[in-house]
Amino acid sequence: MNIKVCGITSVKQLQQLEGLNIDFAGFIFDKNSPRYVGEKLDGAELQNADFDIKKVGVFVNPTYSDVLDAIDNYGLDVIQLHGEETPEFCKDINEDLEVIKVFHINESITSIDDLVAPYDDACDYYLFDTAPTQTSPKGGGEPPLKGGTGKQFDWSVIAKSKIEKPFFLSGGIGVADLAKIKAFKHPDFYGVDINSKVEKAPGEKDMALVLQFKLGMK
Q1: Is the pLDDT of residue 147 over 70?
Q2: Which residues contact 165 (CB under 8 A, 6 or more apart)?
Q3: What's the start-to-end Cα distance of the chain, in Å?
């Protein structure tokens, strides 16, 4: 099972994740996020880091040039699209790098298969996250955060869906959920995305918790 740790804000954290053999590290490029990497990490420092871990750039409704600039400046390996990006936009990005398309799940979603169908040939992976319910911590009319809610959705709607593409589960997942993750069965279940439940503070990961999670997944 693959593990993605999102919300990384320093090369030191990346080095630590590499040492733990974590598969994916997420760097958030949404300025509304408290884990926004743009003000915390020098792109050249990340670009020159020689690691096996896949560096994932996380975006919310970016322009095409936003993504290309980040690829060039930060040496990204994968692009995660967390907003209302169209299948056509995802396809365009997918010509350059692997793409993870995120879908936000709540009780109003009755068919996962209908939800993902337009993106079947537009990305490499899906990621299912909890739909946002709170407003941005910055206030001032900022839109709700598109992730990092620290809350889980009902995974049963995923379990009964065909999907037929590798997918990640995300949203409020931590060490306390290890048994639940192991009990979850789906032929396309590819990985788990963890973030707020393995932090000391937003953007500051608790590597002891990440290690505990990693060992618990074996």
Answers
A1: no
A2: 116, 120, 123, 124, 125, 126, 188
A3: 8
What tokens does 20 get?
């733990």
- Helices 87-94, 64-74: axis angle to 10 degrees equals 30
What number is the average pLDDT over the span 92-108? 96
Buried b (16+ CB within 10 A) or exposed e, 162-201: ebebbbbbbbbbbbebbeebeeeeeeebbbbbbbbbbbee
Q: How do strand 98-105 and strand 54-59 relate by DSSP bridges?
A: unpaired
CB 194 within 8 A of CB 177: no
- CA–CA gap between residue 57 and residue 31 (Å, rounded): 13
- Euclidean distance between CA atoms 79 and 100, whole angstroms: 6
Amino acid, res. 200: K
Token representation of residue 34? 């408290």
Amino acid at 35: R
Residues 6+ apart with CB under 8 A from 209: 174, 175, 197, 198
DSSP 176: G
Q: What is the reported pTM? A: 0.92
Structurally, how many domains does the chain consist of? 1
State the chain's mean pLDDT as an integer: 92
Give the domain CATH number at 132.
3.20.20.70
Residue 47's domain spans which residues? 2-216
In angstroms, what is the C-alpha Rg of the chain?
A: 16
Contact criterion met (CB below 8 Å) for 81 and 63: no
